Amino acid sequence: MSDAVEPEVPEVPDGAAVFPLIPPELGVNPLLLAALHAAVFLDGSEEDVVCPDAANEAMEYLVTYLQRLSGPALQQVREDLECLTSFARQQTWPKQQVRFLKDFLSDYVLGEEGKA
Questions:
Q1: pLDDT in tens, 41-78
Q2: What does the alpha-carbon distance between residue 72 and residue 83 come to, in Å, rounded to a whole number?
Q3: How far apart are CA 83 and CA 89, in angstroms?
Q4: Which of 14, 21, 48, 114 could cross-link to 106 by cystine, CB 3.0-4.6 Å?
Q5: Cα–Cα distance between 72 and 60 in angstroms, integer?
Q6: Distance CA 53, CA 4 (A)
Q7: Who's near 66: CB < 8 A, 6+ residues apart?
Q8: What is the pLDDT of residues 21-42, one digit of tens each?
């Protein structure tokens, strides 16, 4: 019998934007999931949780890297986002989270060309 005490997991502070855990069974690229979670946190968290200037700079780099996607890699992201959007609707996620997934490509990856 072990006397080890489980480490306390800190509570997520109010104002921190977090995204639900995505099950591996969906087969969505883990790197895309990491980028989505980072974008939600950086772009959606309140000022007292994340320094706005630091978050904006990090988002600029994140978007710059995402905009390098093309060809089959970009097509796979499209398919993964469609899968995630469908899953979010089935799970009755809040409309704001579904909209984020639906608009992610045009808002963050494709930029102005995606809104045309």
A1: 999 899 988 899 999 999 999 999 999 999 999 999 99
A2: 16
A3: 10
A4: 114
A5: 23
A6: 41
A7: 35, 108, 109
A8: 999 999 999 999 999 999 999 9
